Amino acid sequence: MTKPGKPVARALKVWIALLLLLGVTVACSYVPLGAGNTLVNALAALAKAGLVIAFFMHLREAAPVIRLVAIFGAITLSLLFLLSGLDFITRASGDAPWQATPPSLYMEPAN
User: What's the predicted TM-score (pTM) here?
Assistant: First the structure.
């Protein structure tokens, strides 16, 4: 069993870490890194999600089967993101047939 003061101290440390990661996300919006902004923000978001899942959802103290279900859900979500990204990258970028401008119904007089 944990001591009464320990969960409060741990929650405070996690809260400070979340605020620091929030600061990284906000600071990154002011620094022009190009594609690096997306990478930094994605890594900060993953770290924030990991902290919330591990500490506030009590996954660290959960039963092994609960951890297994959470890992399976994360793998499934990652697979869906990967497949969606691959579909987006490999799709043709031209106009669809219904988006093309239709031919004019009225012909211009020939001279």
Answer: 0.64
